[in-house]
Amino acid sequence: MAGREPTISHLDRLIVRDGTDHIYKSENEVFKIGDLAKEFSVTLRTLRFYEDRGLMTPARNGSTRLYSLKDRSRLKLILLAKRVGFSLIEIHELMEIYDLGDQNNWHLQLVLDKFRGQMVILSEQKIELDKSIEELGDIVTSLEGML
Q1: Which string of b and e fits 6-33 if b means at least 16 CB within 10 Å?
Q2: For 26-43, what is each residue's pLDDT tens digit?
Q3: N or C terminus: which one in the chain shows less Cβ crowding within 10 Å?
């Protein structure tokens, strides 16, 4: 199967949205833990933590962890979910949905609902942050006026 493009699910396409993503050599390409750590700017400990939590399950060759293209996509989704504020439990739920693949569209609706819900939460947090910044700005202005 060398040279053939990897099978990409709907969710894989969702998280690989730009042309800067990794160029795959083959569907069977594997990555070592250091490769992924470097590519995604995370520590080896972070990757081991995700494995301990059941979010990733790389193959092993002795003590060497071997990550597949699917593992790499999972990591990208985990890091995206973390960046937008999902908890570990919620990320685990997303991974369960991700593992369903492209059986049908109901799992995409679940992901959409979770992402919409997180957007609401982040929007509310942004409003609170904007208020806090405004209050701090007023205090800073007052303090500067006292100098």
Answers
A1: beebebbebbbeeeeeeeeeeeeebbeb
A2: 667 899 999 999 999 999
A3: C
Matching residue, tokens 């699917």? 70
Say how far apart CA 95 and CA 11 lie, in whole Å: 11
Longest dimension (CA), the chain: 73
Sketch out the chain's domains with CATH numbers: 10-146 (1.10.1660.10)
7, 5, 19, 13: which is closest to 108 by C-alpha?
13
How many other CB atoms sit within 10 Å of the CB of residue 67?
22
In the numeric block, which tokens belong to residue 140?
């800073």
Six-digit token pair at 110?
Answer: 């679940």
